[in-house]
Amino acid sequence: xxxxxxxxxxxxxxxxxxxxxxxxxxxxxxxxxxxxxxxxxxxxxxxxxxxxxxxxxxxxxxxxxxxxxxxxxxxxxxxxxxxxxxxxxxxxxxxxxxxxxxxxxxxxxxxxxxxxxxxxxxxxxxxxxxxxxxxxxxxxxxxxxxxxxxxxxxxxxxxxxxxxxxxxxxxxxxxxxxxxxxxxxxxxxxxxxxxxxxxxxxxxxxxxxxxxxxxxxxxxxxxxxxxxxx
Length: 230
Prior knowledge:
Layout: E1 4-7, E2 14-15, H1 17-30, H2 38-42, H3 49-57, H4 66-79, E3 86-87, H5 91-101, E4 105-108, H6 113-122, E5 131-133, H7 146-155, E6 162-166, H8 169-177, E7 181-185, E8 203-205, H9 210-214, H10 221-225
């Protein structure tokens, strides 16, 4: 039985792509460059800010303008990390259900603490989340299991009784490495042509509220999603 649920942040719990889309297009406009689409940004958000800069400007990390544009993006994002960011549709229901059932939930992310904590505070989640593990708190990022194991210890739950939910192969690998059940979400930030089923998660969810079914917290899909056959 699942006694705790851990979430990845960007692309799983939160839709942060619109925030980066706005910032990147403002930087591109300042240099007289063509804007990038939101769909394109979504394909690389899970790879981090550096990947977004490379995609938006069509450059590699060794390009002379890379460091400046990356620093600009991060500095501007730090000024208002919660802007243009929200929970994925249906995720509020998932978190409310976990809270009502007394099942602790937490976040294990590769996003630095200086961005993560302000976002959670902005969205009113800081007082609800049971644990937040960022790269600042561990020696190795995902797919290392270190962060997940730290989160489980903090919550006082055995890893085998935790479930980790993520939108990237490294999330599923981290969950497996930590001996946790895993759920892959397909509504997050998939790379172009990526097959999420190649991650070999224990289960998958195509929309947030389906997580309740996969976690065994909804008796039937029809009960949760309004099947007209009932």
